[in-house]
C-alpha cells in the first residue's frame, strides 16, 4: 500500500469515506481513529458505524453524525513531549 494517495470525503455530515487508510486504531460510536501514511485522523460524532474497511485497498467508510475531523502528523506526540 505504499505511495497510495490519501483522500477523505464527508457527505452532508452523515457519511465519511477515505482512501489510503492503513488501519483503524480504535472505534466507538462517538469517536474513531484512522491510521494513514502521514499519521492519524481522529473523527468525532454520534451514532457512527463502520460500513466498510479493506486493509488491502485502503478504502474506508462510516456513517453517523460527523462533527469533527482532526489530522495528527506522524511523530507529533513525541515532538510535543520534547518541547514541553
- CATH fold description: Immunoglobulin-like
User: Which structural category fits the helices and strands?
Assistant: mainly beta
- How many β-strands, per DSSP? 6
Tell me the CATH architecture: Sandwich
Terminal Cα span: 35 Å
Which shape, going by the Cα principal axes? globular
The percent of residues in helical segments reads under 10%
Portion of residues in beta strands equals: over 45%
Description:
The chain is globular and about 30 Å long. The protein is 8% helix and 61% strand. The mean pLDDT is 89. It contains one helix and six strands; from the N terminus they run ββββββα. The protein has one domain (7-82): Immunoglobulin-like (Sandwich), CATH 2.60.40.2000. The protein has a six-stranded antiparallel beta sheet with strand order 1-2-6-5-4-3, with no helix packed on it. It is mainly beta. The protein starts with 6 loop residues before the first strand and ends with a helix.
Topology record:
Layout: E1 7-11, E2 15-19, E3 23-28, E4 31-36, E5 39-53, E6 60-73, H1 76-82
Antiparallel strand pairs: 1-2, 2-6, 3-4, 4-5, 5-6
